[in-house]
Automatic annotation (TrEMBL):
Signal sequence range: none
Originating organism: Mycolicibacterium poriferae
One term under GO cellular component: cytoplasm
CDD domains in the cross-refs: ALDH_F3-13-14_CALDH-like (cd07087)
Catalytic residue positions: E224, C258
Lineage: Bacteria, Bacillati, Actinomycetota, Actinomycetes, Mycobacteriales
GO terms for biological process, alphabetical: aldehyde metabolic process
Protein name (database record): Aldehyde dehydrogenase
Length: 469
């Protein structure tokens, strides 16, 4: 369903004429209007206003879809997306500037530079857990780069998707940016249109299907995927602060965050103290909320409670759940079996396994025996430990002595590696991700000084060429 018509909430397919919408956006791109710095800045400012002027409506939609608190709605969806748009609006002129490169002697006279060229018409497929930040957030880079954009929000957060479909055409250029609501089948129908670039946020398995669909058209992709993000707590860590930060970030959005601490690896000497401090932090943060954290839907609730019921670990905190309210208590499981679902599948909920290890080497080996994570975290007070983990643990991103904050800066690229993703965005990196780096070289015609290179190839010309190239 395009933004021109109103979609029934939770539609499983779209009534939009997808080819016609994509054609319209392609025509707009062909006019050249989206290439001007004025258009880009205007749209980015409008996107910032869309977020800030509709803070209450956005918080309501997030409450309906996810039971999210207004503070977390503001922090993670409104402020992050508005901030990203404002940062890009301020800097896009600078990012677009040509930067001439000093060419080699053999290339002189001549000038060369990279022209950041918009791909054309691009597709963004969003996830439900931060429906605004993960759909309109990537759109910031796409708009800054001068593309026209189709946005496909997740059908799992229907109130948020419907609100985006209502607001986007009110604030943004209708013929350049369109929202199409629908499910996975709609995503595949969109991908089959052959976009000039696509950015997908979601699980690794669906990411594979998106990649396959894109391959048929050689559509370049950015894949923002999932996985299990570990937290190593070293024996020398500030355990009290570590426990608070781990508990807080595990409970935001009920643990349904791609870069939430999935599991903790604690060195034996501090393991019990860490469990006690996490228990205390949970009691403090969740006072008055005994029922637990709201899970997005029954499928995910059943997945989580089944994994918890199957654990061979010791439930040290929480463990209860409420099927009628789809709520699960913040739960800590100590030493689950490495082969059980809690340790093989991404958790994406308020359950935190803690694995005990005897050394830092064992902790690093544990992480590296598994797929490369989207994020890896470490708590330590020692520089040598920090440097070792930075060097030896591959991950999409890393935070030392905190969690999540690498997502919140415009100054660092955000993305995964291997099964946790392909490509990155945020700030200037988003602009670059949605741009083709076109090499441009200009040469004078006269004097035609390198004429010796033309055939017939003489011995003398060859000697000269060997010296030059
Ligand atoms: P999901 O993979 O189920 O869905 C994501 C999007 O893909 C939705 O818009 C959905 O409609 C669409 N989709 C579903 N089936 C499809 C198909 N066959 N082909 C094409 N598109 C299809 O993910 P989710 O449940 O919305 O989000 C949870 C997952 O996303 C977790 O694994 C999480 O780690 C990951 N995630 C990653 C990031 C990141 O930035 N790397 C952010 C949030 C979530």
């Amino acid at each position: 369903m395009t933004t021109e018509s109103v979609a029934p909430v939770g539609v499983s397919s779209t009534t939009t004429d997808i080819p016609a919408t994509v054609r319209r956006l392609r025509q707009t791109f062909a006019t050249g209007r989206t290439r001007s710095v004025e258009w880009r800045k205007g749209q980015l400012r409008a996107l910032e206003r869309l977020m800030t002027e509709n803070e209450t409506a956005i918080a309501d939609a997030l409450d309906k879809d996810l039971g999210r608190s207004p503070f977390e709605a503001w922090l993670a969806d409104v402020a992050s997306t508005a901030g990203e748009a404002a940062f890009a609006a301020k800097n896009v002129g600078k990012w677009m500037k040509r930067r001439h490169r000093l060419l080699e002697m053999s290339q002189l006279p001549g000038r060369g530079w990279v022209e950041h060229e918009p791909y054309g018409t691009v597709l963004i497929i969003g996830a439900w857990n931060f429906p605004f930040a993960l759909t309109l957030g990537p759109a910031v880079g796409a708009i800054a780069a001068g593309n026209t954009v189709v946005l496909k929000p997740s059908e799992v957060a229907p109130a948020s998707a419907a609100l985006m479909a209502e607001l986007v055409p009110r604030y943004l250029d209708k013929d350049a940016i369109a929202v199409i609501e629908g499910d996975g089948a709609v995503s595949q129908e969109l991908i089959a249109q052959g976009f000039d670039h696509l950015l997908f946020t979601g699980g690794t398995e669906i990411g594979r299907k998106v990649y396959e669909g894109a391959a048929a058209h050689l559509t370049p992709v950015t894949l923002e995927l999932g996985g299990k993000s570990p937290v190593i707590v070293s024996a020398d860590a500030d355990v009290e602060v570590a426990a608070k930060r781990i508990a807080w970030t595990k409970l935001i959005n009920s643990g349904q965050i791609c870069i939430a601490p999935d599991y903790v690896i604690a060195e034996a000497p501090i393991r019990d103290q860490l469990v006690d401090r996490i228990r205390a932090a949970v009691q403090e943060f969740e006072a008055g909320n005994a029922a637990g954290k709201k899970i997005v839907n029954e499928r995910h609730f059943n997945r989580l409670t089944t994994a918890l019921a199957a654990t061979k670990g010791q439930v040290a905190v929480g463990g209860g759940s409420d099927p009628a309210g789809l709520k699960i208590q913040p739960t800590v499981v100590v030493d689950p079996d490495p082969g059980e679902p809690l340790m093989t599948d991404e958790i994406f909920g308020p359950i935190l396994p803690i694995v005990t290890v005897q050394s830092l080497t064992e902790a690093i080996d544990f992480v590296n025996a598994r797929p490369k994570p989207l994020a890896a975290y470490l708590f330590t007070k020692t520089k040598a430990v920090r440097e070792r983990v930075i060097r030896e643990v591959p991950a999409g991103g890393m935070v030392i002595n905190h969690l999540l904050f690498h997502f919140a800066t415009h100054k660092l690229p955000f993305g995964g590696v291997g099964p946790s993703g392909l490509g990155a965005y945020h700030g200037k990196f988003g602009f670059e991700e949605f741009s083709h780096r076109k090499s441009v070289m200009t040469k004078p015609t006269r004097p035609d000084i390198a004429a010796f290179i033309y055939p017939p190839y003489t011995e003398k010309a060859w000697k000269l060429a060997r010296k030059l190239f």
